[in-house]
Design brief:
The complex is a heterodimer of chains A (311) and B (267). With 311 residues, chain A is an alpha/beta fold. Chain A has helices spanning 8-11, 84-99, 114-123, 146-149, 152-164, 181-190, 229-240, 256-265, 275-278, 282-296, and strands at residues 13-15, 18-20, 24-26, 48-50, 67-70, 73-76, 104-109, 131-135, 170-173, 195-198, 202-205, 207-208, 213-214, 220-224, 247-250, 269-272. In chain A, the strands form 4 sheets. In chain A, strands 3-4-7-8-9-10-15-16 form an 8-stranded parallel β-barrel, surrounded by 6 helices. Chain B contains 8 helices and 16 strands. Classes of the chains: A alpha/beta (311), B alpha/beta (267).
């Protein structure tokens, strides 16, 4: 009953070696470990589950208010709350594979040092993990990798450390909080990344004028939702013109039309983020909408849209 | 079986109870079928200008007619826009979410289980309605209900609760009705008058719940508290609403709660 009618042949996607039912994934931090959404969709129709960011040790996250609504979007400063790599491998991954055995699973992780990125990659090089997404762009914690995400040499060092320690496809998730995102993209491509994901959230801030203090406990947070989409599409387009490796486009996708913009700009696959909070079936609805567009336009496969921007 | 879902609900009525509080009746039969006392729903007004859903405690359900009752204070832009919607309009309801209050199981004798004191403060009184009806109709032991409100203009809660309570007691901040003061001030006398109270369930401002949970712990009375925290998803993924319990365990208000043991939350 939850299975939506869509042509799975037109949508089947190989993203950097990860085999996916559709090109539409659930973005890290907005999709839990996937199984939280089982009541809202047939998980077989999810392109990939990208896990909540995992760290070497459990993290409690930031104190105080963590969420704020903003015009057409939201700010968050969760602070990478997660149970840590060991509990993820022991308790969570087996549950995910039991409930969604046929859905691609990408483990998102970060660490505080280049060496720890390598250690994490090695620990995640296990059955049931189809690829890893390297977070060098969490704006809310120092150990969330942002120090690596704004310096091309550091980003390259992390990428190399991860590549050296895993056979899985390696996706590096970039921060938009840089002057020139193509410099970062080029650096991680040269360091061996198999794919690039962009964008992570944009750093933002809200002030409560009644108390004259920052609304968020961490003072600043990451902006996501429809408000960031034009920036994300522009950055995907710039990076697509710079690198040869595939791009996972995300940032403010609400509808299939939004996702198609990313594909035309040069993304080979997309992820839905904040919108999962608002419409918990968004990942599969977007996939179905892409399929409708393919059919209406007489296209045999979604890959025929990738980078087909016309001028 | 699905335990939660999204339903496009038709507004049956959306009327004012007072200047700033509305009661909203929705036709949402699938959510109503599943909703238990203390659970909540996430509402999205697709015509509104806000982006995220907003959590609302389930005030009551009418299963025979598929009706869902929500009572809300017009506090911000989202609830202000919600108050402008009329009968016939539709809104998106996601739910039922979380874990609600627990009650006497069928194997326990009513006498041994004892009386229940339900306490609500402000708009936190809403979920107390469903809990009171459940106690009255399903466990045949009408609760004692204590409501903390600002003044005598907020006695409209009686119409929803009178029928289900063996006693309905108000405190008002200004003393314009009932007992002057906060709900907690009325508890010692209530416990004297109803010595068989063995359970307290409370929903209201954090400071109120903290005081009551601490008092209950001292008296050895089981106390369940219903928490409210900012959240984006309502299903345990955004982690906006987590907290560390007294046991050291981390909890999600939305998915593990919103109802928790008072000792775990407040000590």
């Amino acid at each position: 009953m939850l299975t939506l009618n869509m042509n799975m042949k037109r949508l089947a996607t190989d993203f950097a070696g990860i085999k996916m039912a559709t090109p539409v994934m659930g973005a890290s931090g907005t999709f839990g470990f996937g199984i939280e959404y089982r009541d809202f969709m047939d998980l077989k129709q999810v392109g990939a589950i990208i896990s909540k960011g995992i760290t070497p040790v459990p993290r409690a996250g930031n104190e105080g208010v963590r969420i704020a609504e903003t015009p057409s979007g939201m700010l968050n400063c969760i602070g990478l709350e997660n149970p840590g790599i060991d509990r993820f491998l022991q308790d969570i991954l087996p549950k995910v594979k039991a409930e969604a055995p046929n859905t691609a699973f990408i483990a998102n992780f970060s660490a505080g040092t280049v060496d720890d990125y390598g250690v994490m990659a090695a620990k995640l090089d296990v059955d049931g993990v189809d690829g890893v997404e390297v977070n060098i762009s969490c704006p809310n914690v120092k150990e969330g990798g942002i120090v690596f995400g704004t310096d091309p040499r550091a980003a390259a060092a992390v990428t190399q450390a991860v590549k050296k320690n895993t056979k899985k496809p390696v996706i590096v998730k970039l921060s938009p909080n840089v002057t020139d995102i193509t410099v970062m993209a080029k650096a991680v491509e040269e360091a061996g990344a198999d794919a690039i994901a962009l964008i992570n959230t944009l750093t933002g801030m809200v002030i409560d004028i009644k108390t004259r203090s920052p609304l968020l406990g961490n003072i600043t947070g990451g902006l996501s939702g429809p408000a960031v989409k034009p920036i994300a599409v522009r950055m995907v387009w710039q990076v697509a013109n710079t690198v040869k490796i595939p791009i996972l486009g995300l940032g403010g996708i609400v509808t299939a039309e939004d996702a198609i913009e990313f594909l035309l700009a040069g993304a080979s696959a997309v992820a839905v983020g904040a919108e999962n909070f608002v419409h918990p079936d968004a990942v599969v609805r977007v996939a179905q909408g892409i399929d409708n567009y393919l059919q209406e336009n007489g296209l045999a496969h979604v890959s025929e849209l990738v980078g087909k921007l016309e001028f | 079986m699905r335990k939660k879902l999204v339903e496009q609900a038709e507004i049956m009525s959306n009327n004012t109870l007072s200047e700033d509080v509305n009661y909203l009746v929705l036709y949402s039969p699938q959510v109503v079928d599943l909703a238990e006392p203390g659970q909540f729903v996430m509402i999205k007004n697709e015509q509104g200008s806000t982006y995220l859903r907003r959590p609302f405690g389930v005030a009551d359900v009418d299963r025979a007619n598929g009706r869902l009752l929500l009572i809300y204070r017009k506090a911000g832009k989202g609830t202000q826009e919600l108050s402008n919607l009329q009968a016939g309009n539709r809104i998106s309801v996601e739910g039922p979410l979380g874990n609600g209050f627990s009650f006497r199981s069928e194997s326990e004798a009513a006498e041994a289980y004892g009386d229940t004191l339900l306490i609500g403060g402000g708009v936190g009184i809403a979920p107390i309605i469903y809990a009171a009806r459940h106690l009255s109709e399903k466990t045949s032991c009408k609760p004692i209900v204590l409501l903390g409100v600002r003044n005598k203009n907020e006695l409209y809660w009686s119409q929803f609760l009178e029928e289900y309570a063996q006693a309905l007691i108000y405190t008002t901040d200004d003393g314009s009705y009932g007992i002057k003061g906060f709900a907690i001030n009325a508890i010692p006398d209530i416990l004297d008058k109803y010595p068989n109270i063995k359970h307290i369930k409370v929903c209201g401002p954090t400071i109120m719940m903290k005081g009551i949970a601490e008092l209950a712990a001292k008296k050895g009375i089981e106390c369940q508290v219903s928490l409210e925290k900012r959240m984006a998803c309502g299903i345990g993924v955004c982690l906006g609403c987590t907290f560390e319990g007294k046991s050291g365990k981390r909890w999600k208000v939305c998915a593990d709660g919103p109802v928790f043991d008072g000792v775990e939350v407040f000590g």
